[in-house]
Design brief:
By secondary structure, the chain is an alpha+beta fold. It is built from 13 helices and 23 strands. It folds into two domains: 246 residues, Bira Bifunctional Protein, Domain 2 (BirA Bifunctional Protein, domain 2), CATH 3.30.930; 100 residues, 3-Layer(aba) Sandwich (Rossmann fold). Strand 4 and strand 5 form a beta hairpin. The longest helix has 22 residues.
Length: 442
């Protein structure tokens, strides 16, 4: 199989597994779908929440210099004027006059003709603002117009003064948030890679002007460390050239990942200078200055912005962890246990032996009670089919451990724990199970 066919194949397999096993469903499916939207199912929401939880622990709770916020998706429309999004958040769009397909002019080679029908007859490129417009209140007039946020960042800039007044941080410090963003993408596609509604995890890290280069490098390293910590490898830094950079950025490095459809942006880090705070200070008339107690100076700090897409992290984690063994018969998601949706599955060896089932239920309940509340340790129960099938079913969703209650359990209170990656089994006493998992999840 050539590489391109193999890659398409891998994406198809991932999309199909995601739907079949309850990770991700097409948005509004029963009505024929809604382009660029996807719904996360019972296992998907666990994996996604685990990614966000790990990020929050690492970049907010684990640091003294970053403050978390959760700001409104709807903001005063003046925010988008000040941020430059009303004017600059545009993509060039062309339409094929023959088949009516629509493309981003910068993503296709117009001299080669339409990628859909091959005809060379395009409309001239037009600018298209990607923000979704909406109205606040019952009257649909320009005074009530606003937009769904296309980035979470602005919620942090407009609360800069609130955070310094309430938390009194000293430079350098950051404000972080996780939340939804919306973009009316001209060509959404590649599953959850480019969608119209997605989630971002962003940090605005404020520094003195003289320090920006140092912190840019530090955060770039931090971003790589984060990716590695959740098992995502094959990331390539790409210095974004002047003509491709967003209007607010003086330097951007994209962290590209080797997706099956090519090397594409997973994350980005930008030096946004004092562009946003300065513009909000000017347009709002509010004094947004930082006061430096040591130098007695008041100034607008500069900002480094590490930005992470939640959905692209999810997709990269699936791509990175997907493996086939036994000639394709066994599919395994080798996710790091801390982000696996289900941590352990409990099986009675035989579903029709009452004493085995009763004992297995007890083990299941005790694991659930002791672990689930604090660490998101989700336990699954399965008594269908034979043990081999149950192992395979858990492998396919990335469950790191399977616990089987067999006849020996009834005699000596030990169970077998089977490891997803090595397929090896160990006998562990029921009493030691919680400690066994806790140690491995650290
Ligand atoms: N605040 C800066 C900012 O929004 P961006 O590069 O436009 O920068 C940040 O977006 C991240 O959001 C991207 O690196 C990507 O992970 C994610 N992202 C952007 N557009 C997306 C889309 N249409 N679908 C899914 N994720 C997207």
């Amino acid at each position: 199989m050539n590489k391109e066919a193999g890659s398409k194949n891998l994406m198809d397999k991932i999309v199909s597994l995601a739907k079949r096993r309850g990770f991700i469903y097409p948005g509004s499916e029963i009505y024929g779908g809604l382009a660029g939207t996807w719904d996360y199912g019972p296992l998907g929401v666990e994996l996604k929440n685990n990614i966000k939880k790990e990020w929050w622990k690492r970049f907010v709770q684990g640091r003294d210099d970053v403050f978390g916020v959760d700001t409104a998706i709807l903001m005063n429309a003046k925010v988008w004027e000040a941020s430059g999004h009303l004017k600059n958040f545009v993509d060039p769009m062309v339409d094929c006059r023959k088949c009516k397909a629509r493309f981003r002019a910068d993503k296709i080679d117009v001299s080669k003709g339409c990628p859909e029908c091959g005809i060379k007859d395009f409309t001239p490129p037009r600018s298209f603002n990607m923000m979704f417009k909406t109205f606040v209140g019952p009257v649909e007039d320009t005074a009530s117009e606003t937009y769904l946020r296309p980035e979470t960042a602005q919620g942090m800039f407009i609360n800069f003064k609130n955070v310094i007044d309430s938390m009194h941080p000293k430079l350098p410090f950051g404000i972080a948030q996780i939340g939804k963003a919306f973009r009316n993408e001209i060509t959404p596609g590649n599953f959850i890679f480019r969608t119209r509604e997605f989630e971002q995890m962003e940090i605005e890290y404020f520094v003195k002007a003289s320090d920006w280069k140092k912190y840019f490098e530090e955060w770039l390293k931090e971003m790589h460390n984060w990716a590695e910590s959740i098992g995502i490898s094959k990331i390539y830094d790409r210095e974004v050239p002047d003509e491709e950079r967003a209007h607010y950025s003086e330097r951007t490095v994209d962290l590209d990942f080797d997706f099956p459809f090519g090397k594409e942006e997973l994350y980005g880090i930008a030096y946004r200078t004092d562009f946003d705070l300065k513009s909000h200070a000017e347009k709002s008339g509010v004094d947004i200055l930082y006061y430096d107690e040591e130098t007695k100076e008041r100034f607008i700090p500069r900002v480094i912005e590490p930005t992470f897409g939640v959905d692209r992290t999810f997709l990269a984690a699936l791509v990175n962890s997907y493996a086939e063994e036994d000639g394709g018969k066994r599919v395994v998601l080798k996710l790091p246990p801390k982000i696996s949706p289900i941590k352990a599955a409990v099986f009675p060896l035989l579903a029709n032996k009452e004493n085995l089932v009763t004992k297995a239920r007890r083990v299941y309940d005790s694991l659930k009670d002791s672990m689930v509340h604090d660490s998101g340790f989700i336990v699954a129960w399965d008594d269908r089919g034979n043990i081999g099938k149950r192992y395979y079913a858990q492998d396919e969703i990335g469950t790191p451990w399977c616990v089987t209650i067999d006849f020996q359990t009834l005699e000596d209170d030990t169970v077998t724990v089977r490891d997803r990656d090595t397929a090896k089994q160990e006998r562990i006493s029921v009493q030691e199970l919680i400690q066994y998992f806790s140690e491995r999840l650290k």
